[in-house]
């Protein structure tokens, strides 16, 4: 893989999760443009820099020797990549402070560098939390590849920070410069809530939760067909989002032992709050993680999964295939992986390569519910 070269450093960077012959870089031209601008502008020694949504840690690793860097984002895999890239480039693990997006980074910050996220609600919540965290004379700079930079991103910067100027395009990347202005403390519209009739639940959703304003249609197709009569089975909701599948399964199986895991810190936060509202003090494990990578082999009877088909702006079934492999490793012999997926993705054929028995539990014109037995 090519080195990430900037005026601050030359870095050898990896993405997470790693895959053989990785076709994608852990950085892009927007990272390069942002660092070139920062270097030309000058960065005072010891400046406090906040980096938001730093993909796989390119910005934070480049700046770590020159500033007090705090990095914040909503991806467990991004946080894992940051730690691996610090270590891989001879930088101390504590040279960057990581704050999950479910918490508020504590300023004051002299520079705020933002990679514009795919979900603008996450950007909005992050900008709201910057109120009161900026040092006098602070600068806020957002960066993105032009194809991933909607006009609404500039509108949000103007609404919550101050007047915005756009740079010229360089290598199909653009910077947005926001000048902080005195503004009244904003009110956050997050978390949002919606209600389900079956099971009867009100679900809370923090800003970066997938399908934040209503139940996604895949999960809607899955819910009526969740397994029942599981007794004391150990069940994982893999990629749990706001926790709806795990919570519905727990309600239908009062003795089952549930684990909910997602790589989004805001999803985990939402799932924790939703579980408590629906099930009170019933024991559960809810964690941010790299899927079931940390799960002991042969430790689960059932895995439930509505797999994602993208990582940030990259679309593909790599993450789903990896989840299926993780589920197989974690399941006992005879254990079952239950999934919902778009018909056209052909998960049935993929699962047959890993599991001894795959059957269709339910289907509609768009989705299939499949059960795969180890």
TrEMBL record:
InterPro entries: RLMG, RlmG_N, RsmC/RlmG, SAM-dependent_MTases_sf, Small_mtfrase_dom. SUPFAM superfamilies: S-adenosyl-L-methionine-dependent methyltransferases. Its EC number is 2.1.1.174. Keywords: Cytoplasm, Methyltransferase, rRNA processing, S-adenosyl-L-methionine, Transferase. GO terms for biological process: methylation. Pfam families: MTS, RLMG_N. It is found in: Cytoplasm. Its main location: cytoplasm. It catalyses: guanosine(1835) in 23S rRNA + S-adenosyl-L-methionine = N(2)-methylguanosine(1835) in 23S rRNA + S-adenosyl-L-homocysteine + H(+). Residues 3-181 form the RlmG N-terminal domain. Specifically methylates the guanine in position 1835 (m2G1835) of 23S rRNA. This is Ribosomal RNA large subunit methyltransferase G. It comes from Zestomonas insulae. The gene is rlmG.
């Amino acid at each position: 893989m090519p080195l990430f070269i900037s005026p601050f450093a030359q870095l050898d960077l990896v993405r997470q999760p790693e895959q053989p012959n990785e076709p994608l870089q852990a950085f892009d031209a927007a990272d390069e443009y942002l660092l070139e601008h920062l270097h030309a502008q000058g960065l005072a020694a010891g400046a406090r820099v906040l980096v938001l949504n730093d993909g796989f840690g390119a910005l934070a690793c480049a700046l770590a020797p020159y500033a007090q860097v705090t990095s914040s984002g909503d991806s467990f895999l991004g946080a894992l990549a940051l730690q691996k890239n610090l270590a891989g480039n001879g930088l101390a693990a504590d040279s960057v402070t990581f704050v999950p997006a479910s918490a508020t980074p504590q300023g004051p910050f002299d520079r705020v560098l933002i990679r514009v996220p795919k979900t603008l609600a996450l950007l909005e919540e992050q900008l709201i939390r910057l109120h009161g965290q900026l040092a006098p004379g602070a600068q806020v700079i957002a960066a993105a590849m032009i194809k991933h930079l909607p006009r609404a991103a500039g509108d949000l910067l103007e609404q919550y920070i101050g007047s915005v100027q756009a740079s010229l395009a360089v290598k199909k990347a653009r910077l947005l410069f926001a000048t902080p202005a005195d503004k009244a403390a904003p009110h956050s519209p997050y978390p949002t809530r919606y209600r389900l009739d079956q099971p009867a639940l009100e679900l809370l959703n923090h800003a970066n939760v997938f399908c934040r304003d209503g139940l996604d249609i895949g999960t809607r197709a899955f819910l009526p067909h969740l397994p029942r009569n599981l007794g004391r089975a150990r069940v994982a909701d893999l990629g749990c989002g706001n926790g709806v599948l795990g919570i519905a399964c727990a309600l239908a199986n009062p003795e089952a032992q549930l684990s909910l895991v997602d790589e989004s810190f805001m999803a985990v936060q939402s799932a924790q709050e939703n579980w408590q509202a629906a099930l009170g003090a019933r024991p559960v494990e809810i964690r941010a993680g790299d899927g079931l990578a940390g799960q002991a082999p042969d430790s689960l009877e059932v895995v439930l999964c509505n797999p994602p088909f993208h990582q940030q702006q990259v679309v593909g079934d790599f993450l789903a295939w990896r989840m299926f492999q993780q589920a197989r490793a974690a399941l006992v012999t005879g254990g079952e992986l239950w999934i919902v997926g778009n018909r056209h993705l052909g998960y049935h054929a993929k699962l047959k390569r890993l599991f001894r028995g795959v059957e269709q539990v339910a289907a509609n014109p768009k989705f299939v519910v499949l059960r795969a037995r180890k």
